[in-house]
Amino acid sequence: MAVEILYETHALSTDNEAGIATGWLPGQLSLRGRQLAVELGQRHRSRAIAAVFVSDLARAVQTAEVAFGDRAIPIHTDARLRECNYGRYNGMPVVQLAAQRARHIDQPYPGGQSYRQVVTQVRDFLGELSAGWDGHTVVVIGHSATRWALDCLLDGKTLEELVDAPFAWQPGWRYLLPTGWAGDGLG
């Protein structure tokens, strides 16, 4: 058995549209983002989803509420699914932040965290998910760094190859979390 994880990034935010790296700031969905969140829910309408786990940042919570709020699926917020904390760079233009990502794989952003620390948080989350949701399908809604952590931990990719790769949005990613998963890899 395994846990089937259907991973989705939060829907389009006003900061995304403005080219801002929101980081740990709450952010808000744009009008188009709300429409995309409705579409997310429709994509998963026929699936037997046991639970939705979502970053506790406002843009991610809004995505989950719009997509799944009309269904009897429990929605659990979890701070371990947050975007990387860019510290004093939260809210800076994406173009400026992107040029610095590789330097912060192991070195935290000033006043923030490193991408490796995000992987550690997601590893802890997956350990709990593996123990309590084996045999179920769950939706996880997070951010770019959350997906990179899943790619490292469950697909064997490295942060070095992920942080500078162009973001290619798609309608969800699928991961399998094996029974008894130990979470040894840190990307």
Summarize the structure.
This protein has helices at about 15-20, 30-45, 60-70, 95-100, 115-130, 145-155, 160, and strands at about 1-10, 20, 50-55, 75, 90-95, 135-140, 175-180.
Protein model, in words:
Helices cover 36% and strands 17% of the residues. The chain has 187 residues and is α/β, with parallel strands linked by helices. It has a 5-stranded mixed beta sheet, sandwiched between helices. Strands 2-5 form a two-stranded antiparallel sheet. Helix 3 links the parallel strand 3 and strand 4. Helix 5 (115-132) crosses helix 6. It starts with a strand and ends in a 9-residue tail after the last strand.
**Weakly predicted, low-confidence segments:** none
User: Structural class, please?
Assistant: alpha/beta
Query: What's the helical proportion of residues?
Result: 25-40%
Describe the main β-sheet briefly.
Answer: 5 strands, mixed
